[in-house]
Design goal:
Structural class of chain B: mainly alpha
Order of helices and strands of chain A: HHHEEHHHHHHHHHHH
Structural class of chain A: mainly alpha
Shape of chain B: globular
Radius of gyration of chain A: 26 Å
Largest sheet of chain A: 2 strands, antiparallel
Number of strands of chain B: 0
Shape of chain A: flat
Strand order of the largest sheet of chain A: 1-2
Distance between the termini of chain A: 58 Å
Helix content of chain B: 55-70%
Number of helices of chain B: 14
Order of helices and strands of chain B: HHHHHHHHHHHHHH
Oligomer: heterodimer
Chain lengths: 317, 276
């Protein structure tokens, strides 16, 4: 019976593909189901829900949310707190991304020679990849903290730089963001080094050799051969470092708590949403609004990076 | 080739000096951490740059009093569960997207890809509420289930699956090999290297999670290594050597994992790399 029916439908090729499409649908559902459920429940639903929640006000328990209108987004955008956090975030990115890229490329080039013992140095340069944000931040806390910290207890150092002890590099509004930034650059250095080293190894040796034969100096080979061919790696690394800078949270949580107050010198956008000393920590509606704005900013930023940088990126032949 | 000859004489000396100086600078925070962790409490502040006293008791205290042992167990469980489940879910969904024909296939794949654009920070406000409503605060479900699927993994494995020739698929179908059989005999063996890289990437990212566990963990028994260190920091700033000992204990397992799996590391890190 089934045989007969299938023959009558499956006359032409159209019918055959149509039938096959539906025949495999149950299996596809079984295979895709788990991923779909998780992605919808924990990525897509919360995104949509956050957009909606962003125009609501809730009580401190996050319950009884009521709509207060989409104007809440523009209120957040024009608020001092959000603008301040955005400026801090931009500064943090401007400290960490160029410095991280520069040091990563510098280290990778330094270690890209056939020398005895180079494996040893490469291992050291990659080593900070093993530190989580908590591990790295606590190591730097112990360096920078003004009473129990290492630098504060080296007397010659803090007689030259009294700020180390009073009020402390993490407590001075002028140095706090830089200190957090440097600890963050250090923590990301292993990652950047490994990526750039892999990029360098992907550059064909013949190109260097022919440039060498043509009499190009080391610096000329670097700017004319290495950098252009490294540009896809640099683009990728800078996109990752930028998004990490915008999403940095653990560093601020462990090193400064978004402070020092009252300037809130290290309250970035992500810290403003989730920080334990943030003024909106008990307001789900405002948290959601800031989170959605962060999403929009990050989307725009990576589009910008790919367009602006992407044109100059050399993907090889 | 002259280009390849290693530098000699003063060129080699200057290169080595530069290498040594940078290595020392990079390792400096690690060095101060290790010597502090190995000093008794009364000696920590005296000569912070010199290893002039030695004890293992602080490390032992961090393990028991600081409960680092328990936190390591939690972190390991969480990271292993997420890694294994992510590998399974992304293999089967990549397989479906490559070898099965079904309605709305392209739309669904687009939805998968779109999730890659959403940063974690944006979803967590709502996810905390969701997990709370499931009664999953302070549970392993809460720490793991939201991360049990990965669009990136699905995408990468699909890229490899697509290289399998159509003829091979058809021939094995003639031989009576069904989809599950083909997946087990042909597809999975082909993606082993990608799975290794992906697995390491998943393991590292779940091990390093910081924000999410701080949002849904309030009971000490459920702390991961990262939130455990946060707790240690907030309670014991008068015992910096205990915190540093905790930091060492937290870093060593990941160091071992990285040494064992260093071949997968580069591939894992460049997993999302732009390729022309």
């Amino acid at each position: 019976m089934r045989h007969l029916v299938s023959e009558s439908i499956g006359d032409g090729p159209m019918g055959a593909t149509l039938k096959r499409k539906w025949r495999e649908a149950p299996l596809a559902l079984v295979m895709l189901g788990p991923s779909l459920v998780v992605l919808v429940t924990f990525v897509l639903y919360p995104l949509g829900r956050a957009v909606w929640l962003g125009q609501q006000r809730c009580n401190v328990q996050g319950k009884n949310c009521r709509s207060v209108g989409w104007g809440q987004y523009t209120d957040v955008l024009s608020s001092n707190e959000f603008q301040h956090a955005l400026v801090v975030t931009l500064k943090f990115a401007l400290i960490t991304v160029p410095l991280g890229l520069f040091l990563g490329v510098g280290l990778a080039v330094l270690a890209d020679k056939h020398l005895r013992g180079m494996r040893f140095f490469r291992t050291i340069f990659s080593s900070t990849i093993a530190t989580s944000v908590a591990v790295a931040s606590l190591m730097w806390l112990f360096l920078l903290q003004p009473s129990v910290g290492v630098l504060a207890n080296v007397s010659w150092l803090n007689s030259i730089f009294p700020v180390i002890k009073e009020p402390g590099l993490l407590n001075d509004p002028g140095t706090a963001l830089w200190s957090v930034g440097i600890s963050s650059v250090w923590a990301n250095l292993g990652f950047t080094f490994i990526l750039v080293t892999a990029g360098l190894q992907g550059i064909p040796r013949e190109l260097h050799e022919s440039a060498y034969v043509d009499g190009a100096s080391g610096w000329m080979r670097f700017t004319n051969v290495t950098l252009p061919l490294l540009s896809p790696t640099l683009l990728f690394t800078s996109v990752v470092l930028t998004s990490r800078a915008f999403q940095a949270y653990g560093e601020m949580d462990l090193l400064t708590n978004g402070g020092p107050v009252p300037q809130d010198s290290t309250t970035t956008v992500t810290y403003l949403i989730y920080g334990s000393s943030s003024i909106i920590k008990n307001n789900d509606g405002l948290q959601a609004a800031v989170a959605v704005l962060l999403f929009v900013i990050l989307l725009g930023l990576s589009a910008l990076q790919f367009r602006g940088f992407g044109k100059r990126v050399h993907y090889g032949s | 080739m002259a280009l390849d000859t290693p530098p000699r004489g003063w060129r080699a000396t200057s290169r080595y000096s530069l290498l040594v100086v940078t290595a020392v600078l990079i390792l400096f925070p690690v060095y101060t951490t290790i010597i502090a962790a190995l000093k008794p409490g009364n000696k920590v502040l005296e000569n912070p740059l010199l290893p002039d006293a030695f004890t293992l008791s602080v490390l032992a205290d961090a393990w028991t009093e600081g409960r680092l042992g328990r936190y390591l167990l939690n972190s390991t469980l969480v990271a292993v569960i997420i890694t294994v489940v992510q590998l399974v879910t992304s293999i089967v969904s990549a397989y479906a997207f490559t070898f099965l024909k079904f309605p709305f296939r392209r739309t669904m794949f687009a939805i998968f890809l779109a999730t890659m654009l959403v940063p974690l920070e944006v979803t967590l406000v709502v996810n905390r509420r969701t997990v709370d409503s499931f009664g999953w605060l302070n549970t392993f479900q809460g720490l793991t289930v939201p991360f049990m699927a990965t669009a990136l993994g699905t995408f990468l494995l699909r890229q490899v699956f697509m290289q399998i020739p159509k003829d091979l698929k058809e021939a094995s179908q003639m031989d009576g090999l069904g989809h599950w059989g083909f997946m087990k005999e042909v597809a999975i063996p082909l993606v082993r290297p990608t799975m290794g890289a992906l697995g390491l990437f998943s393991f590292l990212s779940s091990w390093n999670q910081y924000l999410w566990p701080t949002l849904i963990t309030t009971e000490d028994n459920m702390n991961t290594v990262q939130t455990g260190l946060r707790l240690l920091r907030s309670s014991d700033l008068d015992k910096p050597n205990l915190i540093m000992a905790g930091t060492i204990i937290a870093a060593v397992p990941i160091l071992i994992v990285l040494i064992v799996f260093q071949r997968q590391l580069v591939r894992g890190l460049t997993a999302g790399a732009v390729k022309g």
